[in-house]
Amino acid sequence: MSLSRSAGIFMIALTLITSFSCRSREDAGSGMRTGKLKVVTSLFPVYDFARAVGGSNAEVTLLLPPGVEPHSFEPKPADMVKLNSADIFIYTNRYMEPWIGDIMKSVDGSRVLIVDASRGVDFLEMTDGDHTGEGGTEESVRTAEKNADPHIWLDFSNAQIMVETIRDAFIIKAPQNRESYRKNAEGYRKELDALDRKYRESLSRCRKKTMVDGGHYTFGYLARRYGLAYIAAYGFSPDAEPTARDLARISGILGREGLKHLFYEELLTPRVARTIARETGTSLLRLHGAHNVSREELRRGTTFPELMEKNLGQLMTGLQCR
Ligand SMILES: [Zn+2]
Questions:
Q1: What's the gap in Å between 300 CA and the centre of ligand 1?
Q2: What residues pair up with 114 in beta bridges, in sequence order?
Q3: pLDDT given at position 240
Q4: For residue 231, how far is its CA from the centre of ligand 1 (angstroms)?
């Protein structure tokens, strides 16, 4: 989206917010009176974390419509109205949602608590071109500035920090529910911790240590945490197509490493992954990056840990684990 169009939308959004502001105040007030926090979240991971922490004391909604590719998403004027009537807005990080600066300018920060869920997490920084290189090296791990990998939730220790940040925000806005938020957060944190131990144990028994992904660069954090090499056809976002040279390089790695499977991503047609698989005689295995869920997954109440359990099964097949 061009800058001018973006600015245009925000001007419209501002106008809408001004005209809706009286009603918004009443909405937020009634939410607080019933003790149920009104929470708006940007992406599925923070949606699931907030839902778990809030329990019956929060009404959590997801801004991203189900099935929509999240990297190219930008809030619409109607979303801005929704944000302004919330008690809390939680976003993933400024690399995943680069539009957050504009949101900050248009939302009444004295009323809506805006929460950066990445506070205190360990970012993975990459330089251009690294996405088809091998991820997970110590040197690439730094506090992020430019070009940080936005997929922080795929490191389960980061996910635990995010849950704690969300818990603290809930307590600030509804201290009367303090005990419930603490208990829920601790239960969910333990679930993530158990998942982390299961991954570590399972992935230590694999014959292969290289993940090759025909989708965009999503699993750098996971690879780093469990000592795997990671190569992806696309960069951090799936908008720029890989070159013929990228594809040849990936095919070469699959052959050299003796891999029988190529991973592909949720929500996008795996056109590039299919081409590589056909040329290399490998089979495709779906990994869920959990950025967003489909309408059907949302209806079923799919959780983040459920998606990660399924991923572990796929990883164990692809990496030939015992
Ligand atoms: Zn992504």
A1: 23
A2: 89
A3: 81
A4: 14
